[in-house]
Amino acid sequence: MVTIRARKNTKEGVHYRAQIRIFKNSKLVYTEAEAFGKKALAKAWVDRRELELCDPDQWRKHQQRGITVGHVLQTYMDDFMEVGSFGRRELATIKMLIRRSDIADLAAVHLRRKEVLEYLRRRLKEAKPQTVKNDIM
Q1: Which three-class secondary structure state does DSSP give residue 98?
Q2: pLDDT averaged over the chain?
Q3: Is 107 helix (H, G, I), strand (E, B) or coil?
Q4: What angle do helix axes 113-124 and 129-136 make, rounded to 10 degrees?
Q5: What does the alpha-carbon distance between residue 50 and residue 53 come to, in Å, rounded to a whole number?
Q6: Cβ 65 vs Cβ 57: under 8 Å
Q7: Each residue of 88-120: pLDDT tens digit?
Q8: Residue 125 has what pLDDT?
Q9: Do residues 34 and 15 make contact, with C-beta atoms less than 8 angstroms apart?
Q10: Distance in angstroms (rounded) separating the CA atoms of residues 102 and 118
Q11: Per-residue model confidence as pLDDT tens digits over 10-34
C-alpha cells in the first residue's frame, strides 16, 4: 500500500509525505516514510523504493537489519559449542570480540573490509601482532 499525502505547514508551506507499507497475511511487515517539498519528488521516491524492495537482496538486507556482528558471533559460539569444541584461546577471542563495542555493535549486513581493517589498526595499538592475528582467525 502506497500513500502520498499533502500537508500544509504554516512555516514551510506545503509538504508531501510518501509512505510505503507492506502487508503479508494481513500483518504489517514493513513501513517507511519520507517527506518532500514537491509531489513529483515524493512519487519518484515511492517508485524507486518499490523497485528496490522488489529485489530479494534488498528485502533480505531489510529483514537482517539490527543483527550485529556481536549477535552473529554469539550465535556462532552457541551453535558450534554443541557440535564441536573451541580451544581456550579461540573461545576467549570470540568472547572478547563480543564485548568490544567497536566491532560487535556494527550491523553485520553492512560489515565490509574497510571496517575490519579499521578495527585491526585500532587493535594493533593495544595488542601484539600475534594477538591481532588471533582476532582475524
Answers
A1: helix
A2: 80
A3: strand
A4: 150
A5: 5
A6: no
A7: 888 888 888 888 888 888 888 778 888 888 888
A8: 92
A9: no
A10: 10
A11: 566 778 888 888 888 888 777 888 8
121: cell is 589498526
Give the integer Cα–Cα distance in Å for 52 and 20.
12
Angstrom distance (rounded) from CA 21 to CA 41: 18
C-alpha cell at 77: 559460539
Query: Rounded to 5 degrees, what are φ and ψ at 33?
Result: -145, 150
- Cα separation, 75 vs 23, in Å, equals 29
**Which regions of the chain does DSSP assign to beta strands (E)?**
2-9, 13-24, 27-36
Cα dihedral sign, 91-93-97-100: positive
Identity of the amino acid at 20: I
Global pTM value: 0.51
Query: What is the C-alpha separation between 24 and 76, in angstroms, rounded?
Result: 30
**Does residue 50 sit in helix, strand or coil?**
helix
SS3 22: strand
Which residues touch 12 (CB under 8 Å, ≥6 apart)?
none
